[in-house]
Amino acid sequence: MSDHQLPKAYDFKSTEKRIYAAWEAGGFFKPWNDPNKKGFDPSVKPFVISIPPPNVTGELHQGHALTTSVEDLMIRYHRMKGYPTLWVPGSDHAGIATQLQIEKMLVREGTSREALGREEFLRRTWEWKEKYGGIITQQIRRLGASCDWDRERFTLDEGLSKAVREAFVTLYEKGLIYRGPRLVNWSPGLRTAVSDLEVEYSEEEATLYSFKYMLADKSGEYIPVATIRPETILGDTAVAVHPEDERYKKYIGKKVVVPMLGREIPVIADDYVSREFGTGALKITPGHDPNDYAIAQRHNLPVISILDVAAAVNENGGPYAGLDRYDAREKLWADMKAAGLVIKTEPYTTTIPRSQRGGEIIEPMISTQWFVNVKPQARKALTAVKNGDIRIVPEHFDKVYYSWMENIDDWCISRQLWWGHRIPVWYCEDCGQQTCTREDPTKCAHCGSTSIEQDPDVLDTWFSSALWPFSTLGWPEVTPDLKYFYPTTIMETGYDILFFWVARMIMAGLEFMEDVPFRTVYLHGLIRDEHGQKMSKVKGNVVDPVELMDEWGTDALRFTLLVGSTPGKDMSLSMKKVEANRNFTNKIWNAGRFTLSAIGAVQAAPSKAEPEWTLADSWIWARLQNLVRDVERLFQTYQYGQAGQMIYDFFWSDFADWYVETAKQQLAAGGDRAYYTAQTLSRVLDISLRLLHPFMPFVTEELWGHVRKALQNSPLASIAKDWPIMLIVAPWPEPRKEQGWEAGAIADFTLIQDIVRSIRNLRAEQDVKPGKKLPATFAAGEKTDMLLEQKTVLAALASLDGAKLDIRESLTAKPEKSTALVVGPVEIYLSLAGVVDSVEERARLEKDLAETESQIARLETLLGSDFASKAPAAVVNKERDKLISYKETAEKIKAQMG
Ligand SMILES: [Zn+2]
Questions:
Q1: Are strands 90-91 and 153-154 parallel, antiparallel or unpaired?
Q2: Residues within 5 A (CB) of ion ligand 1
Q3: pLDDT digits (tens, 9 = 90+) for 535-592
Q4: Beta-carbon neighbour count of residue 754 at 10 Å?
């Protein structure tokens, strides 16, 4: 009994933690070439990823799980290829999300942020962050993420805050940051501007209100107008019609009267108005609608804001001032009805903007905010992708990126929150000027007055995350890390934040570092439920990755996510797939146990130094070489899912099913044969585990450790003599050029597999008992010698009676009372006398013949069509060969039927 018997089942619960701790303790998550250490070689190219920082308040969802799995796969692969790899981890302070969480907590305590005051509120938020902010990091570790945790960063830590300050002041000094009133997305509940990203649009049932805009000339004529937000009538500054509209042309230049307020406003003409849409006349509310705002700019119309920060009507709303927006809507409409101004109301489906955080309806509102003029940066960022300095995978996202960068608007960066980087601008009470400096000022830079006060707002969280690829490496200090690791190699993230984050990082990198922040952008898709529905808490179809890890293990979850994903495409996640991949983990474990027992059984070195390989040995080795080449090719093109599927198929079918079955016979032979079989098992398992490691790091590491130890204590020690202490740093399998013998070995063993499958199918169809060994006669033609050599293998795999297995080149007559099969060039006659009746046998042959003839008909039609002249010659010839082979099969079946 060997010392290295594995436990019967793989226990991921006890293994994952232990393995992760061993990796970390071994220092394997750190780049082996470190610019801060002795012996650093600046000429070696590193592989670097900065993690998309999750919200510090967050808990792991499937999006994080996929991001982490894909990035860890990239990092592990490059680490095994010998690159110094650095994966920088960290988290985002997530302004709104965090502030909301704390405010809710305060409400539960019976207090509020206003009652606490800014300083105390921030103290409480930091306290909360220290206590709970680590949850997401722990969950990312559980996924096996091999990040360099000593380099972990937080967007509000000292260094990153310095970076934000430097970036703001630099842009301010260049005149690219300004403050002014603009229309923004306003969240009345949170009382802050929110970014476009934080607004969700959904189709909803609303009411369309149609009413009369009466002409001011008291003619009694009116223009019919419709709106879904009647309260905005209070802020109307014009009614617009199409210049060519016959119905309204005569009113252009005249005045109409704002209902209930009596203000007179002009009727204007603008091409933007669609004659076909609605009544063909538009009310223009520049203070509360982005399109109207644009029209107002063109026509020099006044902009009236009618809502306050809580979306109650302000002093501009006349008798409705002080009412909440929805109460005002009801009261105004009732008054208009009484005044005879109402035409009708009807149900109407439209797109409603809601806050991603609070769920309330967002109001477009005029507000004084800070903006960045991003147009100069956007031009550079556009060029960087167009000229190939940055490559986007998949490529079709280029177009989306171009269109966004070409139409970019100034970026509203101020938020009326407390949690975040406070805007570094001080206002002077005496001279009214602004002071913006890198260090907090004590007096006004213009008049020297000490009566200065800092802007109360904070910066949009995306302002700090735009700097992430270089702020995490020490910028604005020119640190050794920044010099060596910037630009990073790949930015891997969901396609949904290409604009909000990726584009801003590109702009910031070019602005502040004068170089792109990364060479490649890899965009993954979103994860949907098993029916393809978006996961949402409301629908209740959210699958928690932590629960999946608890139940099936991390490797099963990672493998499911990685194999299911294609760049840029959404994927469906089902529990069944995760369970199936847990079964794969067990399959790997069992193949490992078998290999270990084979190693343990080897007593001595072989008697002959020159190995004699069996067909099965050569075949599995050739298949493995093919796999290594395919995986490399697929990895180079980011097709990780397809690569994982190929490794899975190889391991499960070729190795664990076919080779292990064959190896049992070879091991039973003992001596040199057993030695070389154990050697093949070990080598194939080793390379398979290396290929699988980036997908399933835990089970592969655990098993590989056992194999390594077993080999080192056996006569097979030379195999493992160069192996490092852990798989995580073992070299990636090098693809070799295809060798001449590979194709032949694969073809011969594939024929054996086909024969075995056919016999197994026949046995199953005819209900032959599993243990029953059948006599058989083969007419094998040119394959006679090969099959004679493989007689024992065939007999064992197909449960044939070895003593009564007659393999010859050809037969003069069909054997008596036998059932026939045709597999490629081989005719097989199985003696089923007494086991099956001849009527059934005849029916089976007829069925086979019918199937074969339908294939012949299909191919003859195909080859008689355009296909023969249009398709490539190699493809056509392949189909011709198939036709010849089907015709031969049909002849053979007919001969058997007599
Ligand atoms: Zn001053």
A1: parallel
A2: 428, 430-431, 433, 444, 446-447, 449
A3: 777 677 788 899 999 999 999 999 999 998 888 888 888 889 999 999 999 999 999 9
A4: 13
